[in-house]
Amino acid sequence: RTGPSYIMEPQNNSCTCISPINIAIIKYWGKKNVEQNIPLNSSFSVTLDTEQLFTKTTVDLLTNRKKKNSILIVNGQNIRIDQHSKITKAINSARKFGLTCPLRIESINSFPSSAGLASSSSAFSAFACALGRLLNLNPREVDVVARIGSGSSCRSLYGGFVEWNDGSDPSDPETVSRQVFPPDQWPELRCIVVQVSSGLKSVSSSVAMQR
């Protein structure tokens, strides 16, 4: 059980990161603020191993691109960036931390996307970590970019057992993730994933939470 690890140091305005999924042990359901992805309650999860279920994402800063739109490639397919609200929100959130140019984002999953295996948690944590490395963001800023894209992705920023705080505690008012126990806290633990379908979920988690 590990958190995101950089598989390539940034070179020529490019950085690649690999990030795992996480599985909630105590789930959150519902949001106080949909736009900012602030959860209704705190949650607790375990981060899985990057050797099996992961997203590999490469982010390039297109500093010389005349067009302002970014480029998104997911599992080899070009995706219109304006039709992907989550990545658009994540990119926009990074602008307040110094992003001034469009991006080229290429992402590959080792497992079916949007099929109930928390693909957004690995995808947006990988994106946030790679972009954060390029922009020299601090951990709090990386957390924000990941969370804006997908709430649960901020839990994949750390290995082991992770809490995502809902921000209701006066002594800790920010909604951020933190590692509670390290990966070796429970060495006997095994997670078994059985894939019964590779099809898309009929209702996304984000939509379901608003019902």
Automatic annotation (TrEMBL):
Biological process according to GO:
isopentenyl diphosphate biosynthetic process, mevalonate pathway
Q: Give a single Pfam family match.
A: MVD-like_N
Lineage: superkingdom:
Eukaryota
Q: Which N-terminal residues, if any, form the signal peptide?
A: none
The GO molecular function terms of this record are: diphosphomevalonate decarboxylase activity
Which GO cellular component terms are attached? cytosol
Q: Where is the Diphosphomevalonate decarboxylase-like N-terminal domain?
A: 20-172
InterPro entries xref list = MVD-like_N (IPR053859), Ribosomal_Su5_D2-typ_SF (IPR020568), Ribsml_uS5_D2-typ_fold_subgr (IPR014721)
Protein name, per record: Diphosphomevalonate decarboxylase (Trinotate prediction)
Q: Which organism is it from?
A: Myxobolus squamalis
